[in-house]
Prior knowledge:
Number of domains of chain A: 1
Helix content of chain B: 40-55%
Largest sheet of chain A: 3 strands, mixed
Radius of gyration of chain A: 20 Å
Helix content of chain A: 10-25%
Number of helices of chain B: 10
Radius of gyration of chain B: 18 Å
Distance between the termini of chain A: 47 Å
Structural class of chain B: mainly alpha
CATH class of chain A: Alpha Beta
Number of helices of chain A: 9
Order of helices and strands of chain A: HHEHHEEEEHEHEHEEEEHEHE
Structural class of chain A: alpha+beta
Shape of chain B: globular
Largest sheet of chain B: none
Order of helices and strands of chain B: HHHHHHHHHH
Oligomer: heterodimer
Amino acid sequence: MSLRNLLENWGDYRKGREQGGHHKYEHMWGMAIDLNLCIGCNACSVACYAENNLAVVGKEKFEKGHALHWMRVERYWDEPNLGEARVSEYQVHGASFVPTNCQNCNAATCEPVCPVAATYHTPDGLNAQVYNRCIGSRYCSNNCPYRLRYFNFWSYYESSWPAPLHMQLNPDLTVRDKGVMEKCTFCVQRIRAAKDKAKMENRVVAEGGVVNVGDQPFKVAPGRAKVQDMEFQTACQQTCPTSAISFGDMLNPDSQVSKLWRSHQVELGKTSQKKPNPELRGYRLLEELNTDPRVMFLERVREV
Amino acid sequence: MSVNHQCSYDSGRRGNARRGLGSLGIVLGVTAFAALLLSFTVVAEVPGAIPPQGAHDGKDVAQPIEFPHNIHADVNKINCMYCHTYARRSKVAGIPPTSKCMGCHSVIATDKPRIKKLTEYWENREPPPWNKVHDVPDYVHFTHEKHLKRFVFDNDALPTENVSEVCAFCHGEVKTMTVAHKTKPLNMGFCKRCHEANHGPFDCWQCHK
């Protein structure tokens, strides 16, 4: 955000979300994860490690909470007394899984607390983390209600990728060093590649305007890249053996992800999803905090 | 657009380096400054573009063969993209494979010492270990193809034969050099000033990865 941009668009900055917000969106990437399909195999997590140059920190540091799993599969046992006697730490029945990556909140709590503006909202609606700008204050992590931001307490380059393993590193993104916060980027390198490809092929939406997602208007920028739905996939989506993860542009009403949000009556900008039809699934994590996440989980919310 | 000025932090850095070198340093410095002035005067106009501003005097990078860019690009008027083929279709401009060199040099100038050395590499089936001159940090995403599209292929006023004028925005007048020498700072301020002048994207994540 340059000063020129700020001065020219001052009126827009003053306006609230109900008038389309201060952003001119190019895309609004969103996700839907079907928990009925998730088998908790952790393949998404492994794919994320491979795609995003995540360091393997080792058991000792993992126990201290230094792990860098951008996509982690959380486990819950909803009926603790079900099944056999506990032979091990983990019981056999009644597990449910929630793959959690950065929720890319529309009203992200991590963004306003960054002292150096290393995390901010991009025109793609992504919650960006600029590594070379980050000074490691960790305010963002402390302010994230989901605990989905990970801090590099150590430099892992030599321990995690001893030669020749460094050859497997993805050149499309940085290897983060000590003192830098990192988190799921919705595979921004793949988004970038798809957008570059669209622009090179002159696939551009010339006109701007306003696009409604649910009942929420979003201003869109003219000249944005026209990326087809499913033109690219995120690493976790690509790897999921049961296709539980859907990813796409929520400003495109025909994208798979928009259809899922609509058909399950999950809406942006709400603090709870009131569904007329009790058969419908779909909720967002801790949405009562008004973070407005763009990752939606398909599962009936039930009392235990 | 003919305004070219050095940014203050650049000249400051060069000044400090010179102070430690003594009289030889001063002589070298003066010649470097003269070379810089000369490079300012030969900047060509590119229609529909405002060239980025800023200058820099990089270290000399030794190459296995002293490749004469001037003979190829200036005397023989070979298009930059003839050898750096990938520039128009990928992120990196690329170094041509030795087979491309040998395409001409199995016939042309075979008696010159540099070509003999090249032929030696070719016959040993190993590429000359070229050293990188223009490099940006790991956290920068830069694509040649999109810049060429904006300034050359989408720019009807600029014939593709004159692509070297666009290359010179960031690579300096390579036409006048033998091996490439970094004459532009290629830092964030340099990129940003050009993006501001030419209305390029201004979002952190467009360029930082």
